[in-house]
Amino acid sequence: MEHETSPSDIVWRAVVACGIVALLAAGAGWAYLHFTQDAPEDVMLPAGRAFEDKDVRTAGLIAEEVLSTEPENNQALLMAGFAAANQQRFEEAVDFFNEIPDSYPDAAVDARTQTGRILADELRDLPAAISMLERAV
């Protein structure tokens, strides 16, 4: 016994097929956006390479460019601070380091330690340096 296909079966199959195609297209779009966009860490790779190559100015410029679109990027804040300190712009370095919140402990410890070092060695503000280093531990 052969089953006849009714018009409602054809419509139902077409709707299901369109739904599957739409899901596949949405998944492909998500995958494209997800895997072709730079992750925040990847955005900072050129800055890290420049810093390692002793091109501190370029490292700082890349970090500041990232900060223009991602002002809370802790890696960019650290790199901008390191670059500023290496260019003898100590107050600016402290400002970058101070933007890193304590809620990100790894970055915050680095930032507080560097700030304490700058305050003690470069800016000769020992009370502020001690306070900052206490925050780091």
The backbone outline, from C-alpha atoms, is: elongated
Percent in helix: over 70%
Whole-angstrom Rg: 26 Å
Decide which structural class fits the backbone. mainly alpha
Q: How far is the N terminus from the C terminus?
A: 81 Å
Count all strands and give the number: 0
Proportion of residues in extended strands: under 5%
Mean pLDDT: 80
Total helices: the number is 8
Succession of helices and strands:
HHHHHHHH
Note the main sheet. none
Report low-confidence residues grouped into runs of 5 or more. Answer: 16-38
How would you describe this structure to a colleague?
This protein is mainly α. The chain is 78% helix and 0% strand. The protein is built from eight helices and no strands. Helix 5 packs parallel to helix 7 (105-122). The chain is elongated. The model is unreliable at 16-38 (pLDDT under 50).
Layout of secondary structure:
Blueprint: H1 7-36, H2 40-43, H3 45-52, H4 56-69, H5 74-86, H6 90-98, H7 105-122, H8 126-136
Helix pairs in contact: 3-4, 4-5, 5-6, 5-7, 6-7, 7-8
